[in-house]
Amino acid sequence: MRYTFFFLGMFIVTACSFPKTNQNSQLQQAVAATLAAMPISTSAPVSTPYPTPTPFDLAGLFCEYQFCVGHPVDMAFYDVSAQQNLGTPSNYGQGLIAAYNAGLFIQMVWQLSPGSADPQFMLDLILDEGLDTRVGTLEVKLIRDMNVIYSPITSTATPLLPFGGSGAWICGDRAFAWKVYTADEASAPALFENAINRFVCPR
User: Fold this and answer.
1) How far is CA 139 from CA 28, 134, 169, 174, in A?
2) Could you report the per-residue pLDDT of 146-175, keeping only the tens digit for each?
3) 66-197 is classed in which CATH architecture?
């Protein structure tokens, strides 16, 4: 019996000496563990600016042989070199194209430039001797760093189109010439302006 009381007393003393858990501490640990387990929200991606397309009207624009030139929308250029030279088309270094309808005829030629900054030799190349005659004064303009010359012309190529104009310029390593036959004197300058204002080529 004496031993029973002894063991009972030891049990009580031992039970009192065990550490008591703190409910606040357990609660704080549970909250911390829950927060650590929660997924972290991903930040919104940084928006990437993309270029917006620039409206570019292709109507009445001929682009081939690494240049573009304006023309009336109801006409289309065709490669004269391919037809005249049995399938040898125009290329970057030289070419001849034309467009026509009932009231207009347009022709354009180009070749590698011989190193001259004066494009007047191209007027001599595109004007047909015995058919085309320069009239009036030669206009010289600087258009987007290109020396451009223009001259009104008359032509006997066809009695339906006795008037016209011709222009020439150098762009990069090539020289270009353009001419038009028209039914009246007033149309040619505006047609040339449309052609040259939309003209681009690699430099």
Assistant:
1) 91, 12, 12, 21
2) 999 999 999 999 999 999 999 999 999 999
3) 3-Layer(aba) Sandwich (3.40)
